[in-house]
Amino acid sequence: xxxxxxxxxxxxxxxxxxxxxxxxxxxxxxxxxxxxxxxxxxxxxxxxxxxxxxxxxxxxxxxxxxxxxxxxxxxxxxxxxxxxxxxxxxxxxxxxxxxxxxxxxxxxxxxxxxxxxxxxxxxxxxxxxxxxxxxxxxxxxxxxxxxxxxxxxxxxxxxxxxxxxxxxxxxxxxxxxxxxxxxxxxxxxxxxxxxxxxxxxxxxxxxxxxxxxxxxxxxxxxxxxxxxxxxxxxxxxxxxxxxxxxxxxxxxxxxxxxxxxxxxxxxxxxxxxxxxxxxxxxxxxxxxxxxxxxxxxxxxxxxxxxxxxxxxxxxxxxxxxxxxxxxxxxxxxxxxxxxxxxxxxxxxxxxxxxxxxxxxxxxxxxxxxxxxxxxxxxxxxxxxxxxxxxxxxxxxxxxxxxxxxxxxxxxxxxxxxxxxxxxxxxxx
Length: 428
Fold this sequence. Notes:
It is an enzyme of class 4 (lyase). The structure is a single chain. This protein has twelve helices and 21 strands. It starts with a strand and ends with a helix. Strands 4, 14, 15, 16, 17, 18, 19, 20 and 21 form a nine-stranded mixed sheet that branches. Strands 5-6-7-8-9-11-12-13 form an eight-stranded parallel barrel, surrounded by five helices. A three-stranded antiparallel sheet has the order 1-2-3. By secondary structure, it is of the alpha/beta class. Helices cover 31% and strands 25% of the residues.
């Protein structure tokens, strides 16, 4: 979890900027990212792979959080970029991100999205299904354009995580199944298509993985499949993409490994299983998203009303909620928080933190110890940098918050706060 410190004015600091200054300048709710932490995470992934002596690509999974400035940061840190929609692709291109380092994912890419990516000459398509396998090739043939692809496969590994973020099991909407023969059929089709350059295979087994056993199991299965395809069809398949899913700390109960430990385990697993099958080492691709940005993000809210139900519960309400962080309602996600403007005071009051939306399920934190709260206090909720703003909505016609990057005592807006005028701009 990101380090926040009390300064001489007794408020928390993020990226060297006091939260009272941030709130005064930008208002609330406010998403604040420690930019230095994101950059350190990016460098940690690359450094760990450089130590492994494997060829590699680290692609930031932009679905976790994307704006033009985040795409620029990823480029500056020599990352590739994983996009899953035309909108994410458009954002990356508008930010000047090199198209050759963009990988296009998704289980239902439209013809228009595929054409857009072909026009941009992106680096790789991760093909997810038989319709896309044909549609993408037809479009590429009309352009006489060679296209690099990976095939997404489901290895049948069930990750120990929330069922909504498990993706590698056999019963999944993603990818070609290995055990039912669909992956091999897709390999045969792709290998015959003249416009395709078949780089290899892709797999993603799930998110919030606190161990490495699932990765090792998946890599063992994938390596066996690569070996079979090499022996049967003479295919090299030089790229192995093992996805992302590296765990982060949301509460003290979460005990993720370090970035280096995840990468080292993956690298050693690849070497072990490829050596067993006497295969040359592949270029290993990974796709960290949550682990790149989650702990770097903090959401600042202003405390509003308080409801005390004697002998039952005390609710405090903040000026945001499920519109800027739907994860507690969707995944039963848990967070830690504290009063940013009074970090040194003893926590003596058990409260539940409610959002302002007209939904009983709009609860950010159910049980939290805080100092007795007052109207106008600033609540800092930690580790909100992934899938907060990305999944934000305008439910109840609530504008989405501003997003700020803070680093070395300076801050800047990277996404402006929406206004009421923005809410009706498309209305007729």
